[in-house]
Amino acid sequence: MLEKSDRTTLKILADQLGFSVSTVSRVLNGKAANYRISKDTETTILSAAKELNFVPNQLARGLRLQKTLTIGLIIPDISNPFFSSIARSIEIEARKLNYSIMLCDSHESTYYEIDGLKQLLSRKVDGLIISPVGENDDHLKQIPENGMPLVVIDRQFPKLNCSKVISDNYHGAIEAVEYLIEHGHKKIACIQGLLKSSVNQDRVRGYIDAHKRHNIPIDSSLLVGNSFGEQNGYLGAKLLLSKTTRPTAIFALSNLISLGAMRAINEEGLKIPEDVSLLSFDENPYSDFLATPLTTIAQQNNNLGKMAMKILYEQICSPETYKPIKVKLPTKLIKRKSVQQINN
Fold first, then answer.
1. Which domains are seen in the chain, by residue range?
2. Which residue among 80, 110, 224, 283 is least packed, with the fewest CB closer than 10 Å?
């Protein structure tokens, strides 16, 4: 007969069941199979834990392991569906590994990124996943140098000595622009994001190289913008649409940029795609439900987050043997109704 207590500990549970503390701990942490613990023993322990309302003391476990069992996560904009979906996938994967997440929003500011980093390090997190603003990496270099596990996601610095999980932004941009060219567009504008960020540079390089592949001259006046936000998309589109000869298509380098561009196009009394075609880098939850469904370059948001967390966990578990890796995930063109075929 199990005796209920106001505060059942791991040792009390083990003593009542007649098993060792390590056996009970391994079962409760989902590692019964790893240690060849029998199915009957596993069932007995799990049933007893449920009956006694046993809740593992993660703080005590962390002290035993000399870990806090928390991961620090810094992203540029939690309101952006792209980053919120990445954060969610990281949190789900972390929970499977008995880790919790401490989240900081850098608001696309290096100042707040540095401040968030200080806050997370002061709380002794076991590792960091950062989607950096992308302007410089001086404050990030010290992290791997001091032995703190680090994975950067989405945006990267090639010389930073840590693991990286990114999308293939360059080939995604080429595919987008070539799709527009295949539909007869030669006057293709590009509203870009944060100029120094790796993702923007790769996407702009793809935009330029796609033109070169098809011997289409680059009109530098059609390359505008300087941030990944909605207001930048709005102002960039306003500028482009005010030209005497306006572009026939706009390539927006982020989901929020495309949202701002749509607002500007609507204000100008123009229609997508009859008056101007629009193609966005980043899939949106709303893309398929717009009056004119939006053609996009989709990234693997969930896999980006899952992969980053798996890599970080490996580094936390085996810091002596771990070597940084770089994972690049392909993008996918999702064809909808926002690009129109034109005849030159």
1. 10-56 (1.10.260), 67-167+301-329 (3.40.50.2300), 169-299 (3.40.50.2300)
2. 110
